[in-house]
């Protein structure tokens, strides 16, 4: 089976049906999405297709990018280009195999194929019987197709895996951000092409498809047992970022008809085990993967930037600016595909009459343990790159006020619930989640106001707009407190405690120092007397 020539991934068509098709089917107008059985596989399929297009079919310039967005190539044209790199995408046979070690790893002990799944319990978890919520044995039989997408998913997200088992090029469990059309039923081609950058924006040497500089599995693995074996960005072709291979793995293919436990479908070729060895490619130094945002400490310019990672609490507007805006002063840079979109913005919106959205997804990892998978759609706005620094300053003011409001809300809920709230160490993130969700609409309305005002040269909210934002924040916080702290009457003593907590909260919301400063800065007339 060859991953760029044979049908292997399931696609969703406009009529709602699903069908396995060759990769060239991404050019079909009736293909609207992939149809993988797992969310992490779905995200990986997008990254596979985007990486493939960027590698073999990158547009020369902005004009060509627009031409192909509006009129995709034919399947035949695309297949001709894919065939140029087909030798790198074999997944059975004697030659180099996709994302698998050049060595057969014959001396390595076999392990269950379920180990490729990032959330699967590790050896220690199985030994100690601590796999209570994620059970052992998931995916213990996979079709060859699912084993390969599982392998790719692991390589691009690889968390720390014990001594010498290297993390991915972006670090373990990176966030991926993709630009997507507003309409979910847009063609898959448009969804993918929005994340392929033209060569005028991203300049790199013409790729040699026979080189391990792009596809590292085409040659002996550069192992990392010794110091000085690190691989830096300068050592390889930039396109290797899409095909980075930190783990040394060989699948054990069986010509046996089995039911794949992930899809429920029968397959002529199955995989139940794989072999692995540590000390694979050790990617080190400052990389800038095109699909991931980065952050750094602006006070320590010599430190390497860190990729954005999934965190407890999910993906909300509290990190929206870090996913979409670039600021040297704040030490943050959005993904290169988002920056590329901004260069297309005016022309794109003029032709399409809509601004795309941002899809952010990834694992929340605690070293080797997956705590969760997050996938969120967030707004994108038409923002000139040179205006981002000033807009970001105004956006961070909104963030600060909302974060302060959340802290006071959470603190007073604890005061209402407990006699000694300072001693309580339990998880209160459910309040955080509710807060971010309930204030999201008001936040993005305020951001739109800032961007609209910036077009007139004023990079801030107008007084009435700032008042609307503040009032929405106050109302949502009070509602949240009342639901969690006043939903039951209780006894007289507990009610007195809860009323006192509510008074403290409203005192801050309408007269706290941070609120007063916000009122003063934005000259909000309604509250000037309090300020």
Quick tags:
alpha+beta, 531 residues, 3-stranded antiparallel beta sheet, 15 strands, 13 helices
Written account of the structure:
The protein has 13 helices and 15 strands. The protein has helices spanning 39-56, 62-70, 75-83, 123-128, 144-157, 188-193, 320-324, 336-352, 388-417, 429-454, 463-485, 492-511, 513-521; strands at 9-13, 18-21, 31-34, 110-112, 142-143, 176-180, 248-254, 258-259, 266-267, 270-277, 294-295, 306-307, 332-333, 357-366, 369-379. The protein starts with 8 loop residues before the first strand and ends in a 10-residue tail after the last helix. The relative contact order is 0.10. The model is unreliable at 125-134 (pLDDT under 50).
């Amino acid at each position: 089976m060859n991953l760029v020539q044979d049908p292997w991934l399931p696609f969703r068509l406009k009529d709602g049906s699903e069908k396995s098709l060759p990769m060239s089917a991404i050019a079909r107008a009736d293909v609207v999405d992939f149809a993988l059985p797992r969310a992490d596989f779905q995200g990986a399929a997008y990254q596979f297709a985007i990486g493939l297009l960027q590698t073999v079919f990158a547009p020369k310039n902005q004009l060509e990018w627009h031409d192909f967005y509006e009129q995709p190539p034919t399947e035949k044209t695309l297949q001709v280009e894919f065939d140029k790199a087909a030798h790198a995408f074999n997944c059975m046979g004697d030659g180099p195999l996709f994302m698998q070690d050049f060595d057969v790893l014959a001396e390595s002990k076999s392990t269950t194929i379920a180990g490729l799944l990032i959330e699967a319990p590790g050896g220690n978890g199985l030994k100690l019987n601590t796999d209570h919520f994620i059970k052992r044995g998931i995916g213990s039989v996979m079709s060859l197709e699912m084993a390969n997408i599982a392998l790719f998913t692991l390589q691009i997200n690889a968390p720390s895996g014990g001594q010498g088992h290297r993390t991915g090029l972006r670090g373990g469990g990176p966030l991926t951000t993709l630009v997507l059309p507003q309409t979910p039923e847009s063609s898959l081609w448009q969804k993918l092409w929005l994340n392929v950058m033209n060569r005028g924006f991203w300049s790199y040497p013409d790729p040699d498809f026979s080189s391990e500089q792009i596809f590292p599995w085409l040659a002996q693995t550069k192992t990392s047992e010794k110091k000085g074996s690190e691989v830096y960005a300068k050592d390889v072709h930039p396109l290797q970022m899409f095909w980075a291979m930190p783990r040394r793995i060989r699948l054990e293919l069986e010509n046996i008809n089995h039911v794949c436990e992930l899809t429920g479908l029968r397959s002529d070729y199955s995989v139940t085990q794989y072999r692995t060895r540590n000390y694979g490619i050790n990617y080190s130094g400052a990389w800038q993967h095109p699909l991931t945002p980065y952050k750094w400490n602006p006070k320590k310019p010599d430190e390497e930037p860190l990729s954005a990672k999934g965190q407890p609490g999910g993906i909300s507007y509290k990190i929206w600016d870090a996913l979409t805006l670039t600021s040297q002063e704040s030490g943050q840079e959005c993904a290169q595909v988002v920056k590329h979109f901004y260069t297309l913005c005016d022309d794109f919106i003029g032709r399409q009459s809509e601004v795309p959205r941002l899809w952010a997804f990834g694992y929340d990892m605690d070293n080797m343990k997956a705590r969760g998978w997050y996938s969120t759609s967030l707004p994108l706005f038409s923002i000139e790159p040179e205006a981002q620094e000033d807009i970001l300053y105004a956006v961070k003011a909104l963030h600060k006020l909302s974060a302060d409001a959340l802290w006071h809300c959470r603190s007073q809920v604890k005061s209402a619930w407990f006699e000694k709230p300072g001693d309580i160490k339990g998880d209160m993130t459910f309040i955080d989640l509710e807060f971010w969700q309930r204030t999201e609409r008001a936040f993005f309305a305020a951001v739109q106001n800032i961007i609209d005002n910036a077009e007139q040269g004023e990079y801030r909210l107008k007084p009435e707009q700032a008042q609307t934002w503040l009032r929405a924040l106050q109302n949502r916080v009070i509602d949240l407190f009342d639901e969690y702290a006043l939903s039951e009457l209780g006894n007289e003593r507990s009610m007195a405690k809860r009323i006192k907590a509510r008074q403290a909260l409203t005192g801050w919301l309408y007269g706290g120092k941070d609120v007063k400063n916000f009122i003063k800065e934005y000259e909000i007339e309604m509250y000037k007397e309090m300020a």
